[in-house]
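Throughout our pipeline, every protein is held as a single compact record rather than as scattered files. The remainder of this section carries one protein's record, kept here as part of the documentation.

===
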Amino acid sequence: MTDMTNFQINPMPATPVEQLEFKPLDSRYRQAYMTGILLIYVLLAALAALLLLTGRTWLFLLAEGAVAVAAIVNLSVLPKALRFKGYAFREHDLSFRSGIFFPKLTTVPYARIQQISVSRNPLSQIFGLCSLDVVNGAQQFAAVRIPGLTEEDADRIKTFLTEKINARND
């Protein structure tokens, strides 16, 4: 006869993911993101100016007004949304939080991580920032993308996650 045990366990983690202290993204990320958004609105305003070629001034004014209102609303909400973004590590997983109107919290267990990569786009490179992409086994795309990291932070986190993955495989 086999000695079977069935001990009681506590299903509540020591720190629920909703109560984690999230590390904010680098302050330069806010500047880089706002610069990118501002460039998009400048481009949209320039495209709207092409409406002047049609001779319909009212259509041009309407389009420029819509672009201006959208820019003001977007640029006033973005700082709060960017301050809300953050990441946290627990003993067995990584969590990333984003979104203020539609909050999103993604948690990836270290055991599921298959690939970690560091990427840069031209604008973030100007500000000396990069993103860390963490791909899990169940998805073809990045399960978590942590933007707005300094190169040192991205390398440090990549090394930490790689060590977690290697410890699991040993």
Observations:
- The chain has a mean pLDDT of 87.
- Residues 74 and 82 are 12 Å apart (CA to CA).
- Helices lie at 27-49, 57-84, 122-126, 151-169.
